[in-house]
Specification:
The complex is a heterodimer of chains A (540) and B (271).
Chain A: H1 5-32, H2 43-77, H3 85-107, E1 121-122, H4 125-155, H5 163-194, E2 200-201, H6 203-236, H7 244-257, H8 274-286, H9 288-308, H10 326-349, H11 351-357, H12 361-391, H13 398-424, H14 445-472, H15 497-500, H16 503-526, E3 532-533, E4 535-536
Parallel strand pairs in A: 1-4
Antiparallel strand pairs in A: 2-3
Helix pairs in contact in A: 1-2, 1-3, 1-12, 1-14, 2-3, 2-4, 2-5, 2-6, 3-4, 4-5, 5-6, 5-7, 6-9, 6-12, 6-16, 7-9, 7-16, 10-12, 10-13, 12-13, 13-14
Chain B: H1 12-38, H2 48-56, H3 89-98, H4 103-106, H5 124-136, H6 144-148, H7 153-165, H8 182-185, H9 197-200, H10 217-229, H11 239-246, H12 249-260, H13 265-270
Helix pairs in contact in B: 1-2, 3-7, 5-7, 10-11, 10-12
Classes of the chains: A mainly alpha (540), B mainly alpha (271).
């Protein structure tokens, strides 16, 4: 039973409200730099919007979803009331305050630095302080997840930690450690310059710090989605998790190898040695492993559900699946997008292949397909699944929910496939304006137009999503019963301590961070004369 | 079983987890730091340690690359957005006295009628850099160079502060005389040209870039042509030379004409 429903609802509503705003900005950006929009004559407005879109979608929205979902998991999987509810509210309000503090300078055009900061560009100091508050608020959640698990362990010595909570805490530890990179960049480098204490910045070192955060943050975004794959989908479609152990191994693998791989974002950066780039590239290849394990386990779990429903034959069971169930639909869409996005990711992580698509629209297409597609569609599914338990009211309009998921899937494909394509043709990213009248890029106008249309399909889907949730708040009351997670085929009676605790894997994560980042960071920090003058946004 | 039993090689999971991670790290390190550096036939290493240092990115000067000889002086001015950002009243006063000798070309109020640049309200960092460059010879001009050659650092800073203090021609344009040309507002992304306005006014300003609005059309055109031909070369990292080279003669004329047309006539009449 969920005792702190208001807390969880507050997280979800704030997350989805800012998501709606950022989604609208995104669609507008697609439109305004496509051939169907009339150019504004002011790139600053475009970058302002882009900064807001990235900051909300990268920092605020997924963090709040992970937090809200995390509290729900803690209460329902552990079957104990959340410990530290006041702290949880404090964390929530920190994020609200941080978001507002960050958005005001963006709206005023004083922080158009994009969400990845891009030093030596320097914006208004309150933008960065706002981001810091958001991160600090999320660290409160990390601490609470650890505390709640500890309290539960004391009451249940030696018992296997429920899979959903085990994964949830793994995700929170991953986030705690990966956020340290951006925090170091902000506190040691950017904020002193933004506050006027220094006028130069070591942009190369700052980029390395950010790469520490930049890749593992994606796996933090991914965690709620993977938890939904394992802990919600099999239950929702009437099946069982094929292997509890395999699930645990996937999550601990994410913990270990998601972190020491971020330098594949700096393949084109001269300040990082080629040897370290190779190590990061090799470890990035390893991170495909937990995803492949997951795809295997979930397909097996889904097959179990299908056969329980009377499915027969080598592939005939696929027809027996409950395709009218939104969770089934969301899973299938998510997997398709994960497949294409993952294949693109393998290209990004290969040193040589990356050279052909580095800094092109391919990259933007890639992360929208993975994050906006495979991950966010499961956030929708999580919200649909939890909503009746949070509101005490039923979500009745399944047809509208299916329409929404279909639109999101189709919209994301229509948006991102041409986006990848123009990237291969060499169209650079982070450009506010393209002159499609120029013969050199005129052939790309059609692809970009398709992308923009896809953006509007996504916007439509996003609006329907918010309408469904809002209507769900006023539906007739119905008791949804206790919130449960999927059981495994062989529900574990005991779990080896290595797979029941996180200590070993957190230790390996930190050790690999030191081996893979220690030397590059130390040399860059100790080398003299590597700083460049800051470029202040909007400075006269 | 507690975590104390976990961190020991007697625990199989610990042994396997740590073992596989360590093996992965060692194998990739050997490949990345030793095998792959030697796999590049076009790079020569003295020994294994040399290859490892190279792959680790140890900062050092590459032996095979010698710095190209510079036949002409380049600008050695370093600007930050804080350069001369807080002038004292005394500095401005000293600058006003020194500026008497500049008035014959640049106008008594810093507004020129002789196709020399208007200096009133120009960014201090811009005047500071140009005077330094004239003094060092990174930029040369038959009239200007002799004036600059005897200036002290203090005098350059004072002059810059004084002109930055003078009221600028307003950037407010109720009735622009010319429509904004594409090159000013969009640049030419295909040719790698950023919009002029992104640095020089109309959209934004960047440190070290002069405010161009209201400057003489003949002067701006001449400077763009000088950048394009390489005759003028005091721009940092060839920023302006790269842009001017890629501009068409028509774009050069449009940009110069546009910026020259910007201050309203009424302001010119006051001078």
């Amino acid at each position: 039973m969920l005792a702190n429903r208001k807390l969880i609802l507050a997280h979800f509503w704030f997350a989805f409200a800012v998501f709606g705003v950022a989604l609208t900005l995104g669609a507008w950006q697609m439109f305004i730099r496509s051939p169907i929009g009339t150019w504004l004559s002011n790139p600053e407005l475009y970058y302002r919007s882009l900064t807001a879109h990235g900051t909300v979608m990268g920092y605020v929205f997924p963090t709040l979803v992970a937090m809200g979902f995390g509290y729900a998991i803690s209460e329902s999987a552990l079957e104990q009331r959340l410990v530290g509810v006041r702290w949880a509210w404090a964390g929530f309000w920190l994020i609200v305050a941080g978001s507002i503090m960050a958005v005001i300078p963006i709206a005023l055009g004083r922080a158009s630095v994009l969400y990845t900061f891009y030093p030596p560009l320097i914006g208004n100091v309150f933008y960065y302080l706002g981001v810091v508050l958001v991160v600090v608020g999320s660290w409160v959640w990390v601490a609470l997840m650890a505390v709640n698990l500890r309290v539960w362990r004391k009451a249940h010595p030696g018992a296997p930690v429920p899979l959903a909570m085990f994964a949830n805490v793994a995700g929170s530890y991953l986030w705690a450690w990966t956020a340290v990179g951006a925090a170091l960049e902000l506190l040691l480098q950017i904020i002193p310059v933004a506050a006027g204490l220094k006028a130069t910045i070591d942009a190369g070192l700052a980029r390395v710090f950010f790469s520490w955060t930049l890749h593992a943050i994606v796996y933090f975004w991914l965690m709620p989605t993977y938890i939904a794959y394992y802990a919600i989908v099999p239950r929702a479609i009437g099946g069982r998790v094929y292997s509890d152990t395999m699930a645990r191994i996937s999550f601990i693998l994410f913990l270990v190898v998601a972190m020491p791989i971020g330098m594949h974002h700096t393949f084109a950066d001269p300040q990082v040695g080629a040897g370290f780039k190779f190590i990061h590239s090799a470890f990035t290849a390893l991170v495909a492993l937990p995803t492949l394990l997951t795809v295997f386990t979930i397909c097996a779990s889904v097959e179990i559900a299908a056969r329980l429903r009377g499915g027969r034959g080598l592939f005939g069971w696929i027809r027996a699946l409950p395709w009218d169930n939104p969770m089934m639909l969301a899973l299938a869409f998510s997997f398709v997008m994960l497949g294409f996005g993952g294949a693109g990711g393998l290209i990004n992580m290969s040193y040589q292949l990356d050279a052909s698509i580095h800094n092109t629209q391919w990259i933007t297409g890639h992360f929208h397909l993975i994050f906006g597609g495979a991950i966010v569609i499961m956030y929708f599914a999580i919200a649909y699944d939890l909503w009746p338990h949070l509101t005490g009211r039923e979500l009745t309009d399944l047809r509208l929910i299916r329409t929404q998921l279909w639109l999101w899937f189709v919209g994301m494909i229509v948006t991102t496939f041409p986006w990848h394509w123009v990237g291969i043709l060499g169209m650079p990213r982070r450009m506010a304006y393209f002159d499609f009248g120029d013969p050199a890029i005129a052939p790309q106008a059609l692809s970009v137009t398709f992308s923009a249309i896809g953006g509007f399909i996504l916007l439509t889907s996003g609006i329907i999503f918010l309408v469904i949730l809002a209507r769900g708040m006023r539906a007739p009351q119905a008791d949804a019963g206790p919130y449960r997670f999927a059981l495994a085929v062989h529900q574990p009676a005991t779990v080896p301590v290595a797979l029941n605790t996180h200590a070993l894997w957190v230790a390996l994560m930190i050790a690999l961070t030191i081996t893979n980042y220690g030397y590059p960071i130390l040399t860059l920090a100790l080398t003299e004369g590597t700083s460049v003058p800051a470029v202040y946004v909007g400075a006269q | 079983m507690s975590t104390r039993d976990l961190f020991t090689f007697r625990n199989g999971h610990f042994k396997i987890g740590v073992g596989i991670t360590a093996v992965m790290l060692v194998v990739t390190a050997i490949a990345g730091f030793i095998v792959l550096p030697f796999a590049q036939p076009w790079v020569q290493f003295a020994n294994v340690w040399d290859a490892i240092c190279s792959a680790a990115g140890v900062p050092r000067r590459a032996a095979s690359v010698t710095a190209p000889e510079q036949s002409k002086r380049l600008s050695d001015v370093v600007l930050t957005s804080h350069t001369l950002s807080r002038p004292s009243q005394e500095a401005i006063g000293r600058g006003a006295t020194l500026a008497q000798r500049c008035a014959i070309c640049h106008g008594p109020t810093g507004i020129s009628r002789a196709d020399s640049p208007n200096l009133a309200g120009q960014y201090a960092a811009v005047i500071y850099k140009e005077l330094h460059d004239f003094r060092s010879g990174a930029r040369t001009n038959a009239v200007m160079s002799p004036f600059a050659v005897n200036l002290t650092d203090q005098e350059i800073a004072d002059l810059s502060n004084y002109y930055a203090y003078l009221p600028r021609l307003p950037a407010y344009h109720p009735t622009p005389l010319l429509p904004k040309p594409n090159i000013v507002i969009y640049g030419a992304p295909i040719r790698g040209i950023a919009p002029c306005g992104a640095c020089h006014g109309s959209l934004d300003n960047k440190t070290g870039s002069p405010w161009l609005e209201g400057q003489s059309e003949a002067y701006m055109k001449a400077q763009l042509q000088a950048f394009a031909s390489g005759e003028r070369r005091n721009d940092i990292s060839q920023q302006m030379r790269n842009i001017a080279r890629a501009m068409t003669p028509q774009e050069i004329e449009q940009a110069a004409a546009y910026y020259a047309s910007q201050p309203p006539d009424v302001v010119k009449a006051v001078d």
